[in-house]
Amino acid sequence: MTMKKMLMVTAIMLTPLAVRAEVVGSVDTTFKVFGPDHKIMVEAFDDPDVQNVTCYLSRAKTGGIKGGLGLAEDTSDAAISCQQVGPITLSDKIAQGKAEGEVVFRKRTSLVFKKLQVVRFYDRKRNALIYLSYSDKVVEGSPKNALSAVPIMPWSR
């Protein structure tokens, strides 16, 4: 990989999405004498282009000294569940099929090179929104993933 390409990839990775997750809660999984414990975090975010769809993510958060300083790399373990919380309204770009495979959430899970992402797909044939969570790195990602589907009822439009 050329230096120019590496700088471009790094700049894209560091560009934050506007969507921020709210921490709903957490549980400790491993006690650490120094620094915070390892945890499973539960976070919620609203889809920025679909009114009244909220996704809940559970993800591993590495503790210890490195974790406390933000230098640790979190594992690729995550789960997702997305729910309709009111009448669904699709944005024009989704309704017209212009938002296929769109990243709706991104969170850094290491200092620079790894991130957890949620990508939304619109299954027009079955009238459903599909949310895929996965973790990737600049060089090699993980096949670990989770999926959630939200049916769009005819009265939701």
TrEMBL record:
**Does Oxidoreductase count among this protein's keywords?**
no
- From which residue to which does any coiled coil extend? none
What Pfam family does this protein match (any one)?
CreA
| Signal peptide region | 1-21
- Superkingdom in the source lineage: Bacteria
Query: What UniProt keywords apply to this chain's record, in alphabetical order?
Result: Signal
Q: Which InterPro entries match?
A: Uncharacterised_CreA
Keyword Signal among record annotations: yes
State what protein this is by name: Protein CreA
This protein's species is: Erwinia aeris
